[in-house]
Write a structure and sequence with these properties.
It is built from eight helices and 17 strands. The protein is of the alpha/beta class. The longest helix is centred in the last third of the chain and has 32 residues. The chain binds flavin-adenine dinucleotide. Flavin-adenine dinucleotide (FAD) binds next to helix 1, strand 2, helix 4 and helix 8.
Length: 310
């Protein structure tokens, strides 16, 4: 029978790794199971994390793992958690490689995945000159001629946001949209061009975009792109476990320490927030690590009391 660990952390991005650091320092036996596909892996540089501004995602992870390895009660498994059975106090995690781990508590730090719009040429520029988050990469694209590709109800909000980094934006809806006449007028009076025809392709060289071509033959020069991807959960595990979701599809938490609606299951990082940033994920991981430790300490206290009475 496998050892009953204190916690299993599914996902080794900043959320899972910061939780592992907190739990390792709290002398807890922990396994970090990580598939190794963090959301920002396409980028050359990460921004906005104090003391780490401009760091390569791989280097960020290398430093994190090296520091956590100082705490021998934390182990790492390069694997995918595919199934979780059991309940608070004894979860059983099965992996793709055929291993099983048992843990009293669970942290789901599985992140989110970006589904890119099906536009020819977009993957060539993604992470190089096309990005999803202006807080992450807006500074690098500041003052450029920016194509902003967005659909749905967030068109105006996205346009307003990107204007914070460049005055020169061109909106593309890549086909039919739901803008009202009044909203189109809002764009017109602000001199923001709107192209609502389908995009044929994005033309680039070495990852640097130089124009967006529309199906009708129109070609629009630009030197950067922001687009709105569709976000999906990094794994089905939170839903399979019955974790409640928020209306926007994140996993709901019942306290600031990342406790989910399922006893013994904590969540941290992108999977549980709309503010998708490395520092936010790391902070949520630290909080969840403390939350898990608090539950383990409370349970140990109870058990000690019962032993004393026996
Ligand atoms: C293009 C791009 C650029 C970005 N740039 C920045 C930036 O400059 N600055 C910034 O602050 N933020 C940036 N972000 C956002 C940032 O990447 C995320 O906020 C952050 O990675 C979230 O951390 P996380 O730990 O929640 O998830 P992730 O970092 O995505 O890590 C989740 C991990 O869980 C693993 N996983 C999922 N399911 C399983 C499973 N079943 N079993 C095992 N492992 C599993 C995944 O493989 C992955 O390794 C960027 C995002 C994108 C898309």
């Amino acid at each position: 029978m496998e050892q009953l660990l204190d916690a299993a952390i599914i996902g080794g991005g900043p959320a899972g790794l910061n939780a592992a650091l907190v739990l390792g320092r709290a002398r807890k036996n922990v396994i970090v199971i990580d598939e190794g596909l963090p959301r920002n892996r396409v980028t050359h540089e990460s921004h906005g994390f104090l003391t780490r501004d401009g760091i390569k995602p791989d280097e960020f992870r290398r430093i994190a793992v090296e520091q956590i390895r100082a705490y021998p009660s934390v182990r790492f498994a390069a694997d995918i958690a595919v199934d979780i059975a059991g309940a608070d106090g004894d979860f059983k995690i099965s992996t793709k490689e055929g291993r099983t781990y048992r843990a009293k508590k669970l942290l789901l730090a599985v992140g989110k995945k970006d589904r890119l719009p099906a536009i020819e040429g977009l993957t060539d520029v993604y992470g190089k000159s096309a990005f999803v988050c202006p807080y992450c990469d807006g500074w690098e694209l500041r003052d450029r001629e920016l194509a902003v590709i967005v659909k749905g109800e967030h068109i105006l909000h996205f346009a307003k946001t990107i204007l914070g980094w460049s005055d020169r934006i061109i909106l593309f809806t890549n086909g039919p949209h739901e803008l009202t006449d009044a909203q189109r007028e809002e764009l017109r009076v602000r001199n923001i061009p709107l192209h609502d025809g389908p995009i044929r392709r994005i033309v680039s060289e070495d990852g640097m975009v130089n124009r967006v071509e529309l199906e009708d033959g129109f070609s629009v020069p630009c030197t950067g792109i922001f687009f709105a991807p569709t976000l999906v959960a990094g794994s089905d595990l939170p839903q399979a476990l019955g974790c409640e979701l928020t209306p926007t599809g994140s996993v709901a938490t019942t306290n600031a320490l990342g406790k989910s609606s399922v006893p013994g299951v904590f969540v941290a990082g992108d999977i549980a927030t709309e503010m998708n940033q490395l520092i936010q994920a790391a902070a949520m991981g630290a909080m969840a690590g403390a939350g898990i430790n608090a539950e383990l300490l409370a349970e140990a206290w109870e058990a000690r009391g019962q032993m004393g009475q026996g």
